[in-house]
Amino acid sequence: MRKVFDDYRVLSDETLRPEEPRVEKFLQAMKKSLQQRDNWTFWLPYTLSLDTCMKCGTCAEVCPVYLASGRKEIYHPVYRADMLRKIYKRYFTLPGRLFPKLVGAEDLTEEKLDAMAENIYRCTICRRCAYVCPVAIDNGVIAREARKIFDAIDIAPDELKKNGTQKQLKLGNATGTPANAFLDMIEFLEEEIEDTKGYKVKIPVDKVGAEYLLMHNAGDYLAFAETVMGAAEVMDAAGVDWTLNSPATGVNDAVNYGVFFSDVEFTAVVKAHVETAKKLGVKTLVVGECGHAFEALKYLMQRLIPPEERPFEVKSILELEDEWIREGRIKVDPEKNPEPVTYHDSCKLGRLGGLYEEPRRILKACCKDFRELEPNREMSICCGGGSGFAIMEKGDFLKFRMETYGKLKAEQIKASGASIVALACSNCKGQFREIINYYKLPVRFAGISELIANALVR
Asked: Are residues 34 and 19 in the same domain?
C-alpha cells in the first residue's frame, strides 16, 4: 500500500480497494449525507460544522491525539475536518465550484481519499473539542459522518462491520458465542462466585416478564468476567426480579458498533435490541458497563424508534446501583475496598451521557480512599479506546493507541497515586488493560460492579 498518511493502518488494501475508481462513488454518498431526509442522526450539527470554522485552534488545545503526538499537524482536529470540508466546498457550494482556490476548496483524488479514510480513524470522536469550541463546531461529528460516507461505498474496518455488527446480527453477539456455550459460561460464573465469596447466586437467563433485562457487552463474559459476576451479586443483593438473555431469545450483546461508523448498521442492531426486550416482556432494559451502548439505547434510539414501539425504560446499571445504595436497598462497607481508587470518566457515559455523579457516589460509598483524576468530568481525557479503537490492533495500531491517548492516561494515573482505576465502560477496560501493560504501571483496573460486590454487606 502506498504511504498516504502515517505509519499506522486501520484499513487494509483489501478494504480500501485502491485499484478501483472510488471518487465518484464517494461524492454521490456525500451528497446524500448532506440531505436532511437521508441523514436523520446528526444532519444539523454536521452541516453547520462543515460551513463554519474560525480556525482559532481552541479545539487543538484539548485534543488528546494532537497534544500527545507532539502537535503533529495531521492530527489537528481542523486538519482532519478540513479534509472533508474542502471537498464539501469544492463540489457542494457555488463559490467552491466557481473559485475553488479562493475558498480553500480542493479536488478529491484517489490518493486523498485513501489519506482521509485513515485519518478519520485517528479520532476517537470523544467530542472534547466540541465542548470547548466557542461556536460549537463538532469536529467529532464530521469524523463520524465521514466514516458513514466511506461505509456507504463499502469501506469500513472489519473489526466494526464484518466481525462486529454483521456477526452480532447473525449470531446474537459480536463474540460469536452460541446459546449452549453462553449457558455453560453462566454456570461457571455461578460456581466461581460460590468458590470465591462463599455464597450462592442464581443468575437467571431468558426469564420472560422480568422487571429488569441486564444486557452486558458480550466481550465482558470472556475478558472482564469480574464485572459480570459483580453485577449478578448486586442484582441478587438488591432482591430484584431480573434476567440475562441468551442468543436463543435474540441479541444478547449490548454493543452497537454502528454508533461508530454507520447509521445503517446502527439501525439494524438497535431494532434487534428492541425486539429482544419486547420478546422477553421486560419493564427496563439495563445497559451494563458499556459507554457507547448506553448512548445508543438511551438516547439515539429515541430518534429512531417511536415510544409506542419501545414499551420499556432504558437505564445504565450505574443509575440503578447508585439508587439502591442511596436507598439502603444494598448495604456496603468501604473498609472492604481499602486501596486508593480513582475513576476514569468514559466519554460516552460522561460528556455524552451525563453520568458524572452516579459513579462517584457509588465509589465514595464503597471505597475507603477515592481520588479524582485531573482533569475529570466534562474535561476528562479520552483513554483512546473509544469509537472502536479498543478492538483495533492490526497495522501497529496498538502502538498508536499507546503512544498518543494512552500516554496521557498513563501520566494521569501516575499523578493520582491510586492503585485501582475504576472503569464503567468495556472499551475503556480494553484500553486500560493495554496501557497498564505497556507502561508497566503498578495499578489494576476494576469495574464499578466488581467494587460494589467487594463491599457488599450480606
From this structure: yes
Query: Of the candidates 126, 155, 184, which is a domain's last residue?
Result: 155
- What pLDDT score does 41 carry? 82
Same domain, 190 and 308: yes
CB-count burial class (<10 Å; 0-12, 13-18, 19+) for 59: buried
Q: Rounded to an integer, what distance in angstroms lies between the CA atom of residue 314 and that of residue 317? A: 10
Taking CA atoms, 12 is separated from 17, 156, 235, 262, in Å, by 8, 10, 44, 19
Predicted confidence (pLDDT) per residue in 335-377, tens digit: 999 999 999 999 999 999 999 999 999 999 999 999 999 999 9
Residues 77, 83: Cα–Cα separation, whole Å: 10
| Alpha-helical runs (H) found in 17-98 | 23-33, 43-51, 64-68, 77-92, 94-98
Using DSSP's 3-state secondary structure scheme, residue 360 falls into helix
Q: Among 109, 129, 155, identify where a domain stops.
A: 155
DSSP 395: T
Clarify whether residues 375 and 408 are in a common domain.
Answer: yes
- Domain limits for position 309: 162-322
Q: At what angle do helices 23-33 and 110-119 cross, to 10 degrees?
A: 50
User: What is the model's pLDDT at position 201?
Assistant: 97
127: left (phi over 0), alpha (psi -120 to 50) or beta: left
* CA distances for 79 relative to 29, 86, 120, 209, angstroms: 22, 10, 11, 51
Report the CATH number at residue 391: 3.40.50
The Cα 246–Cα 49 span in angstroms is 42
26 and 57 both lie in a single domain: yes
List all residues 6 or more positions away from 293 whose beta carbon is below 8 Å from its beta carbon.
Answer: 215, 217, 254, 255, 256, 287
Q: What is the mean pLDDT of residues 322-337?
A: 97
Query: Residues 21, 140: one domain?
Result: yes
Domain identity same for 316 and 167: yes
Q: How many domains does the chain have?
A: 3
The DSSP secondary-structure symbol of 161 reads I
Query: How many H-runs (helices) and E-runs (strands) does the chain carry?
Result: 22, 8
For residues 181 and 317, membership in a common domain is answered with: yes
Same domain, 202 and 132: no
Query: Dihedral of CA 41/45/48/52: which sign?
Result: negative
In angstroms, the Cα distances linking 21 to 25, 113, 262 are 8, 10, 22
